[in-house]
Amino acid sequence: MTTPATRRRPVTVRMFAQRFSSTPRGARLARRLALHQLHQWDVPYDSALAEAAGLIVAELAANAVTHGRVPGRDCELALLYAPGLHLRIDVSDTRGERRPASGVPGPLDEGGRGLLLVGALASRWTVLDRVPVGKTVRAELDLRG
User: Fold this and answer.
1) Does 43 have pLDDT greater than 90?
2) Can you tell me the distance from the alpha carbon of 85 to that of 81, in angstroms, rounded to the nearest whole number?
3) Res. 112 pLDDT band, cuts 50 70 90
4) DSSP secondary structure string for all residues of 68-129
5) Taking Cα atoms as reference points, which of 141, 137, 140 lies closest to residue 59?
6) Residue-level pLDDT at 35
7) Contact 66, 110 (CB under 8 A)
8) Where is pLDDT greater, at 86 or 10?
9) Helix 48-67 and helix 24-40: axis angle, to 10°?
10) 86-93 and 75-82 as β-strands: parallel, antiparallel, unpaired?
11) Cis-peptide, bond into residue 24, ω within 30° of zero
């Protein structure tokens, strides 16, 4: 006896990728483009998901253009969205030798709190090698339940 096959709704995975200049203006554009693309995918601008994604993209893009900048080289934003399942945010730069610090900053440190924010908003984040050169900082938000 075999069990009847259950029909599952198909999952449509949506993808977006865009390069931007390694400047503060490019980082602002990355955040705006991410929010605009999420809106195109029926994620309202004022939703909790859009707000969290906007903050994560802003922090990762700012880090990429501040710490990962190589003159003449662009950064890249990539989004992978599976509605109801997860949102993956990748920000890549061409400076692979400068990895994000994962330590807790001291009370008088002027920086180092951005990745704490990313860690608080994202389900998980990691740093990956980028082929042929550079690194990708990936943050994922689980949307189940």
Assistant:
1) yes
2) 8
3) low
4) S--TT--EEEEEEEETTTEEEEEEEES-TT-PPP-SPPPTT-SS--HHHHHHHHSSEEEEEE
5) 137
6) 97
7) no
8) 86
9) 150
10) antiparallel
11) no
